[in-house]
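As a representative case, we now present a protein record of this kind.
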Amino acid sequence: MVETAAALRTVARNVRAARTRAGLSLEELSRRSQVSKGALVALEKAQGNPNLATLVRLADTLGISVSALMQGPSEGRVRIVDADAVAPLWTGERGGEARLMLTTSGPAPVEVWRWRLEPDEPYPSHPHQAGVVETVSVTSGRMVLIVDGVEHTVEAGQTATFDADAPHTYRGSGTETCSLIMTVHLPPGPASTT
């Protein structure tokens, strides 16, 4: 519980700092991100329990990575992250999960995720900002990737990439658990203010 409270304080501090850097009021961030003002106020006070969709919307709107909202200061030149040390940001009804392992630094950061999807378990994602590209590499099992309503089967040993500014869903397929590594390539610079 102490780790969860510390993580929430880090997210609160990072959201407030990113909002301030972007020159956005709570009302404007709420409007652009489609996250209620009440939820934002609670989040900036380190209260509540934001879900993955909320964090993705805030990160997209603020032009930063999800892990930039969650990470404390850099620990040095090399970071090694153990999957078991990272709490899932999404847990599915059938036991699937998504863990944001890390985000690279630089003008066009890349998020590295580890996913597990059980058979017929979906995770629908809203469209991201223009310029976001996702790549999924299935390491075991099979999944169905649905982009803009079109289904694509991706099996163990295969990799798919797509522009993530369209609605997309990941769904476990077949009879065994699907494990995959996802990278989210973020565009350089802050999100558009239009």
